[in-house]
Every structure is written in C-alpha cells, then in structure tokens.
Amino acid sequence: MNESPTQALLLASGRGVRRLDAQKSKPIPLVETPQGQAIIDSQIEAVKQADIDEINCLAGYHVEKLVETHPEIEYYYDSEWENDSNISGLAQYQQLLEGDLIVVTGETLLQPEAITRLRNVDCDVTVAVSRFPTNEAAQEAKRMLTEDELVLLEDGTVQPDVPDDQPPDARLLGAASVSDRGTERFRSAVMELSRADNEAAPSFYDVVATLSSADVCALEVEETVQTYDRQNALGRFLLGTKADTLARLDGILEEANILDQVVFDVATWEQTPEGVVDRIQSSFSSDPIVVRSSAVVEDGWHDSQAGAFHTALDVDLTDKRALTDSIKRVVESLQDGSGRADEDQVLIQPQVSDVAMSGVAFTRDLDSGGRYTVINYDDTTGRTDTVTAGEGSSQRTAYFRHGLDGIRTFEGDSSLASVRAAVEELRNLLNDPPLDVEFVVDNDGTVTILQVRPLAVHTGADRYDTRDVTDELESVAETIKGLQRSRPLVLGEGTVLGVMPDWNPAEMIGTEPDLLATSLYEYLITDDVWARARAESGYRDVRPEPLMVTLAGRPYIDTLVDFNSFLPATLPDDLGCRLVEHYVDRLSAEPDLQDKVEFDVAFTCLDFAFDERREQLEDAGFTDEEIATLRRHLRELTDDIVTGDVAPIATQCDRLVRLADRRQQLLDDEWETWSDTIRCVTHLLDDAREFGTLPFSILARYAFIGTVFLRSLGERGVLTDEEIETISEGVPTIAQELATDMQLLREGELDESDFLTQYGHLRPGTYDICSPRYDEDPSGYFDVDGGLDADPLALERDRESELTEWSPTLSPEAEAVFEDSRDRIRALIRDEGFTFTVDELISFITESIPLRELAKFEFTKNLSAALTLLRRGGREYHDLEPDELAALTFEEICQSATTNPSPVLSREFDRTINYRSKRAQIQDRITLPPVIRDSSEVRAFEVKSEQPNYITNETARAPVVQVEVREDLSPDELNGRIAMIPSADPGYDWIFGSDIAGLITKYGGVASHMAIRAAEFGLPAAIGCGEVVYEDITGAEVVELNCADGTFEKIN
C-alpha cells in the first residue's frame, strides 16, 4: 500500500478550444465544464484534497495561459504537442517519471476519493476503469468507442486487445497510480512508444497496453472519474441497434411517431421460425409490413454500415411464404456480412402508406461536419425509399444552421417544418450528437421516425469553436446586406450571388479554392480585366467594381455588377436600370439559370432570334418602345463587334504574340534571390493581364456572340442541330490538336518530349499551385515512363506564340453547311438591319471560337511559369511547400518585388499561414448555397436538383469514373467510361486523350470550356448538373446519358 505519492502529473498538451482570435484560444485544461469550472481547477482541487502538494504539468498548446492561471504548479513544455500525443512529449522529461505518481490526462475529471482509492491499491501500476453493467452496454461500447479504450478484466488486472467475438468488460479512464517500484516500467513503456514508428501518435491508453504484458491493476471507480471530452454521452446511451433505439425513443417524442415493432434475433429465428412468423402475424393488423436488419455492427459512431444489409418492403403480412422468404433474405444478408449474426436482430414494422414526404435528415453536414440540420427529401413520388436509394429526379435538400436566430422557413413547406421540429427534438433530447434520421410524413402532417442512428461523420482532429463559425457567418450576412444596397457606380440595387454566372468561378477555380488561386483569379480576371474588356468592346464600363466577392472562402459572382457590364455603353441609364433589376429578379426567381445568364436571363447582343425571347421583356412590363430601344443599341453594339469597328480580333492576336515575345525575355533571366524570383513572377503575371487575359476576355465574349449566332440560326430554322454540330466539330481548335496528339502519344507515334514541349504547361486547376503541370508529372497524366530532359521553363524561352502563323480553317463539311445556307443567312442579316456581310459573320464565328481557346492556351503559359517559379522559390528560400504557399495571397507573396524583403520574412509567412489554417478550418465548417439571394440564406437555404446542360444528341451507356478522386488513375482506365469531373477547368483536357464514352461535370455552363470541348468532339455530356445530382451519380457503377432526351439514369 502506498503511503503518500509524491507528485501528481497532469498530461495536458493538447488543444482544447481553438479560436480565430488566438487570445481566445485555450488548452484543454482551461475548457470549462457545464458548471462553469475549468477542468484544471477541478483537477488541482481534487489533487490537493487528496493531500498531494507537488503538481507537475506537461503542457504545449498555449502553455502561457495555464501559467497565468495557475502559476503555483510546475510546467514542462511539450514541443511535440501538435502530434496530439502527450507521450512523445513526456519522453523529453524522464525526471518526471520518478517516485510515486498520480497520472491524469488533460480531459479527465476526477474526485479526491478516486485519487485516494488509486493510491491505496498495492500494485506497481493501477488504472481507473469503468465496468460495463450489462452485456448490452458492453456491445454498445464496442460499437461506439475506440479499441484502445476497451479492456478485459482478469483477476483485477487489465487485459487489452479484446477479441472480436468477445464483449469488453470495462473502459479505460485517464487516471492512474504508479508506485515508486512501477515508475521504471512506466518510463520504459513511454520511451518504447516514443521511439516506435507508429502511424498514430501514442496515447496514454497505449502506455497501459504496453505495460499490461506484466500486471496492471484495474480499479473500478464508478462515477468518480469521467472523461470530459466525450461528447454525445446521452446519445451513446440511447442509440443502440436500430430496433433498440426505436424502442427507447418510443413514448418520449412529442413531435414524431414511432411505429409498433416486433424484434427477434437471428438465433431465435433459426430455432423457431414458425413461432416467429405466428408472432408477427398476430402482432399487426395493418398490411403490408417491412422487414429490416438490426445488426450489432450497424449504426456505429465511427462506421455506420448504412445500406449494407437487405430490407424487404411491401411484404404481404397474410402470406406466410412471402413473409418467411423476406425474413430469410434479411437473415442471409446478416450472415454474409455482419460477422456477428447470432447477436443480430431482425426488425418488423408496418409499411407506412399515404406518404406526402419521405427522406433522411442529418444533424451535421456530411461534407464538412458543420453543425447543420440537412434534410434531403422527396415530396413527389409517394415512396419511402427514393432518397436512401438515390432515386427520384426531384429530390431537394434543405439546410438549417444550428444555433442562429432568424432561421427562415420555406413557403408552403409545413411538412418540412414538421420534420425540422422532430429533428430538433431529437437533437435536444440526445444533447446534439451527429444523427442520421430516416423519416416519412403522411398527408395529415404526422412525422414518423423510421430510424435514428449515429452519423459517422469525420471532420479532422483539430478542434474549432462554434462561436468563431457563428462570427464568420454573421460577417458573411453583413457583407451580403451591404451588396444588396444601391451603389454609386452601378445601376439598380439588390443582387444575386452565384458560383456559376458569367466568369463561373466554380468552373475555373472551384467552389472552395485556396487563397492564392482566388487572388490570382481576381488579379488576372475579376478585379479589373473583365470590365476593361467589356468596355473596350462597347459595353458599359463598371470599373472599379469587382466582379467576384468571396464569402467564407467561397467565390461568388456579383450579378448586379455583371448585368451592368452587359448593357451597351450607349443605352440610356433609366432603361439600363430597369433591365438590370429585371435580370436580378429573374435570376432570383429561377436560380437554376445561374449558369445560363447570358442565354436565358440577360440580353447581351443581338442575334437572329431576338423575337423568340421578346416575351420575357413583355411579361416583365417593358413597353414596345423600350424593347425597340434595347434592340437598336444591341444591334449597333453587335454590328461594331462583328465588323471590327471596336476591339478588332487582329488587335487581340497582336497582344497575344507580344505576350509570347516578352515571356521569352523574362524566362531568359536568372533568379539568384527571392526578390529576383518574385520580380519575374510579378512581370509574368502583369504581362498575363495586359497581353493575355485582356485579349482572352474580349475573345471569350466574341466567341459567345459567335455561338449565339449559330444557335439563333438553328432557332430560325436555317440550320439543323446536326448542321450546328458539324460546324462546331469543323472549327479546328487547340483542344482538338491536343486530343489528336494525346492519341499519337499513346500509340507511340509522337515522342513524349515533343508532346510535353508543346503542352507541358497545362495543369488541372489552372490557378492551383498544388496541381502539377503535365511536364512535372507526365506519368501521372499519361501512359509514359519519362519526361523532359531539360528544364520546362528553359524550353519556354525558345517557343514562339501559336498565333505567329495562325490562320482560321474550316472543315469541308462545315464549309458546305455555310455555303448551303448563305442566302438565308444574308436575308436574316438584311432583315435585322446589320451592316456586316455573310462572309464577315462566318469569319467572325470561325475565328472567335478557336481564338478564345488559343488565347487561353497562351496566357496560361505565363501563369503556369509563374506558379512553377513560386513553387521553386518557396522551397528554396522559405522552406514552404506548395500547400503552404497556397494559403497566401498573390499580393502578400509579391511584396518583395518592390521592397527589400523583411529579414524575418519566413517567420512572417509562417504566422500568416498558421492564421489562415485556423480560419480555413472555421470556413470549412460553413455550408453556403450555390445561389444567394438574401442574407438569411446563410442560415437556411434549399438546394434543388439542377438541370444539366446536355451537349450533342448522342447517347452513352457506360461505367462511370470520378477522375478527381483517383490519384492512381491511368489514361487507359478512362477508355469506354463516362468521366466525372467537378468543374469544366481546361486543365482536365488530358481526359480527351483517352477514348471516353461521355462526360459529366458538377459545375459549368452551356458556354463553358468543357461544353465547347464536348461539342467539338461530338461527345455526349451533361455539363453543370449541380451538387445534388452529381453526388447522387457518384454512387452508381453504370450510367446511361441520353442527351437527345435530356436525361440520364443510374443503371446500378
């Protein structure tokens, strides 16, 4: 028996609360319990009441705050606290592991009685445990807790490594007594673990497991020791198997109904199947019924096994054979996949009829782990399984942020409000754990809960504070309110923010880009260049208003500014104001048009089908005179563009040639310092703006106008859809050349160094510094073994612009189409009052479309070279990896171009990166809608299944493959498959080197890069299908994509 342990050792290195404002962050011992007492206050109080005077504390995260709070105890700094292990730090201070010890982990609350009892055990090492009161509780713990917390107890000692087929006896707690004679063993275990090459950082429980090769005594402490950081404790108690959970909730819910149930285990079924059937038939009067699994391995906190076992719907209660066969199928699925079938249960319930709504609700966002109630529902089919089966074309998803005032409701959604009330009741009852709730609502508005289970959502190891998330959301809301107010330099007021209108950031940089990518896109396009390009082309000059705003790290197009920039510069302000506000109102009413604003919302040029859209303006209250005025100004604008009276195409080509000449000069320099590197980067990007993205922006607008003219020729009956496709495929582009050369590369007919010399600067994620260029990782993109022998940047010095000898060409088939329709086109030109000729229009179409792609190809050479230089310079001069540089803005990085760098610049970068990491964690817990119409939508919003843009009239039925999640994907694996990519970024052009069957993108509009590519190659594609549909498709193996009918279907 220990007389008097000489010291208490608190292991308190880890994070507790991490706030964006570091002054508000705190280590775990300073986290307050619900009673308002800090954990360390409780620990010190208990230790002193147990007559222990000497207290040592191993601390790391914000140790200074612990010192300030309790200066009377001795602190030892854990320099390795970030690896989430006290044990690695403890190895630095072996002197702490001498004499008699009470060891307490930072998140452990204990009473003096527990310390006294631990000291009184006559054992080298004694650890506190909590014995499970029943076998059921042990099984629950095995599902809910980590393996290293669970032990067997044998003759009062701890035995780790519980066998799979055996329930644990107890759970380890974070308190132990180590006697003087046991400290050598304890110290040896700590040193052994600190030296081991483990994937996971060693924990206090690992020390206990290492020590247990010899006796480690167990002390059952009942409620005198608790682990505070165990959230969801009540939820863990109430949430068992599917059947157990429903039984425990029955009778205690006011906002929802629990169905009657019959439950039996597999062993009972195998012994007395006829008795079970008789019991079921006598228990229910309603018909039909549902037979479902209720497995021990289902619905855990770390792995849900959702959908792993069979469910039988619409089973005829009166048909014994059908009932028996249904139960057998469920039992067989358990026996095949559970591993613990004898303990598993089968659950029988009535089949719900009269279904008005069905679906699934989560109490966390699956993608981010953010605190949202997410309700995915179907209110059209009358079925109960469309959401869980991933079926139903009209699924909708509503998001409600937890803990914010002003949560909006949706018009006419009483069923949705009832479901939300039921979920809120469950959250409050269970102390808000992550939940997965399956429900139905009948036509009387009654909510029936079919299942409640833990939601196995993984959000990373770092803690974050919900107050910071709330502050960030409120800041987003205030920013949106400001954008809704009138502004002095633009017409109209009110705006709609979208991720896909016009310059489509979702397509170009993604919906959650790194900060460097965002700042580069702003610098090269959306801050100024886009508006300058519009102004040079004859549109209203809206500078200095930026086009894009960033909310919680997500880029949005400000459509009020965007719609202003589509007005002819000569249009009267009063009419322009009315038009802009009409466009905003139309997009607000039909947010699914966000990727089609130039076609279906705004009037941005005059084509041959103006009268087909005239009704839109008439319905909005515009007079014939106003419509005629708009038509006249659009005619003058369009005429000037096609004839070359404004910003002629030749001028844009000259700019691009100059870009290449200057790039060669810049890359011929040598970079001996960080400042040298940054000066070159800055010059490359300045040139990219002036001679690259500016002409590209103009040519992109012209290519759009050319595309609109082609479409209008179809709408007026001059061209068929097939003839339009013939023209699209007959205009040679750099993308077609790339696809051809990729095929030659795969067939061994093109040398890989020649291929990479031509296309090596391309990268998926054009603005993403973390994305390797083709020539930096050729084997990752193509089936090649080697790469370039020379520095890729050195090769750029010798390459002339693709524009130097470029001239427009057209396939004979496309020429024939134009020739056959020449007279009808001439008549349309004359009727509309244009001054340009048929030849001028055909030249405009056949030049602008390929030149847009060529301009993009050219300016990305500068951007790609700049990113490569940054990667190299960041590593060489500041030991920064690309993912760290990605957290900085272009402006922050490039300050050294005009001023001498700070002597502590590396440390300044590190501080900024650390701050950005914290803020990114906070922003990652926020979910925002793809279209924002009002500040209230940061708190609650709805996302509908979006209508994709179907390209070609072809059909493809093939397996699907997600390109962006397969780092090991080879080009051959794409052959014969439908490729899925998140955005229409041109860096994904390498997929066309494979013989893909079709293409599906989450983001991208009808005029997007990949839409154009698909049209060029005659490839069936669904562009911009939206988040709901895209995520639904990801679970399919085979998809049929029917572009002619505008449908796609999951085959399995």
From TrEMBL:
It comes from Natrinema halophilum. It comes from the Archaea. GO terms for molecular function: ATP binding; transferase activity, transferring phosphorus-containing groups. This is PEP-utilising enzyme mobile domain-containing protein. InterPro entries: ATP_grasp_subdomain_1 (IPR013815), Nucleotide-diphossugar_trans (IPR029044), PEP-util_enz_mobile_dom (IPR008279), PEP_Utilizing_Enz (IPR051549), Phosphohistidine_dom_sf (IPR036637). Residues 976-1046 form the PEP-utilising enzyme mobile domain. It holds the Pfam family PEP-utilizers.
